[in-house]
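Example record used in the benchmark description.
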Amino acid sequence: MTQQPPTFSVHQLVYLWLAVLFVASLLVADVLGVKLFRIPLGFSFSVPWQEGSIDAIQHTCGMLTFPITFLLTDLLNEYYGKAAARRVVWLGFAAGGFVFLVVNVALAMPHWDVPFNVSAESFDQIFSASRVMYVASLSAYLVGSMADIWMFGWLKRITGGRMVWLRATGSTVASQLIDSLVVTWLAFSVGRTLIPGGGEPMPMDEVLKAAATGYLLKFFIALALTPAVYGGRRLLERRFGLVPLPPG
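Model output (structure tokens):
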């Protein structure tokens, strides 16, 4: 008798694709995070914690995909539960750790000095200089994602499963605050203390100011992603027949 290969249900396949998109978004964010961008606003405004006015959006290119991880965490939490959402977060963390290990092995490999190869200086400048930021962002991601999952479930329970916008946006806004503080503190304060030649550690008051500025952008991104949460729910329910789990 020929054994048939195992088959997957629609719900299992959806979970698999959401997990793959989650891990891909995280890894792309960590790799691209070394590049900073600046987009002029055309106007300026002031905030209490920063000297001078803000006249541009400035952040890392990791913000192109990193907010997607919080959107997917909320959808996974909504339809598969906290345990399933945490499993994907740990998968992303393990994948990020694996990438970090491979990058360090690549940095240690002997360079082939030929014209058609990338220069050793260029490769080291990108990947070696970004190791502290990579570890900081990966650690902040783990703390922030776990906080997002807990906050989402708590808001869902106290609202009785109503007000999707509140638990989706509220959990992301709160967890992004933690993420901004942790990544800034690790990258510019603790990391520079532990890594020789990392530069002068940033004072704690400056860490709080820098984290607040970065959080401001993440706050508006979280608000902008709220319609995407409703769109994702509609897709999962109408196209794939998923049903939101009851509160608790």
